[in-house]
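Re: export button greyed out
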Amino acid sequence: MKNLKKQEALNASLNGNNGVIFFAYNNEQIDYIRLAILAASAVKKHMKNNQTCLITDKSSLDWNSKSTTSKVLDKAFDHIITEEPEHKSNIRKFYDSPWTTFECQFENWNKNDVIKLTPFDKTLMLDVDFLVNNNFLDIIFKLDETLMLYTDAITLRNEPPFHTLERRLHKKGIPMLWSTAIYFDKNDEVVQLFFELWGHIKDNWDFYRYLYGFSTKIYRTDFAVSIATHMLNGFVENTLVKPLPDNPMKYVEPKDDIQDVLSDGIRCLSHKPDEEWQHIFVNSKNENLHIMNKKAIDRNWDKLMRLYE
Amino acid sequence: MDDRLERALDFSNFRLTLHNQKQSAKQRAENMLQVQYSNSLFKADQTLINFVKTMRDEGYTPFVVSDVHDNPVQIEDSEIFLEKLISAYASAMNEYIISHEKFKKARSIKRLVEWE
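Workaround output, generated via the alternate export path:
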């Protein structure tokens, strides 16, 4: 871990020990550190609580030293923590537009360990494909709430998710909460309980799959946090975890694409879920975006980096 | 394709894109209305602004309002709170009307998504 630099010390004194954390474990298809650099640069540009931390492993860092310079990495992150993941099989199907798919390992087994790993008291954990494009999330660090996440999401077409499994764990199941962005205060007892329970659910994934009645075999952290919240809330619908201020989360679906990066936003192509060959253009400006098509981010990485300079 | 149908479908696409961009602008304005005060979150809508002003004008200080999560919050300094609400409301609505005016003038998808 690197020492605090002057600017970070200043931020810490102004904003308390707050920061944003990213997990990035590369696989054979996706350079997650490259995506994390972009996401952290967006945080640095738009947020005041902009100390950043990367959690990764040695092999990803080694690869990154070939794909980007250490200067870029150092500029994006104030802290780098090396933590080896559990390396359990978790093969996931990824989309890049409606026409291209690929499968590869998805390392998300240790996301619940963030409470032990974070160097910050108040932490916002973001997925590396979540791009911050405004300062709305700064508000959360000044609230009494100790645990917040996105409880709802909308597509680029401003519609709720088309697929049942992005709304509920199954057709008649509990609502799905999103683990894309989780804010927490690590010193709060309920928060500690939440992360402990998340770990327990992960360790007994097959049992909880059966109990909550969903068929997907891959380990999904969205589902794990939804179950943990449901259990901690007395097995009724969530009133425990409050939504983030810009809830619902806007997301670019895996079958959508980035058409171009503008001087002040991103122009996307949004597909129609029931007629996938039909698209509309959507200009996204000043809104936080969860871009699930990671290949699209990678294709436009240079242009997006310029947006966050 | 019949020209009449082609023109109608072009307009249909334009309307869909226009509606979507308007929805996004509205969503942004809604988000900009959020105000943090006394470790709580409020929405600076017209109702809250009027209520706070009424309570202040009638000399009820401090008084209690519900935040966006329905928690009661005691407002100690109504002057600062009102100022924050009005400032957030003005910023959000000014940006919203600028976007809206731009959309009103756009007559093509290319103009809407700033391709030209």
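The helical segments of chain B are 3-32, 46-57, 78-105, 109-112. The button fix ships in the next patch.
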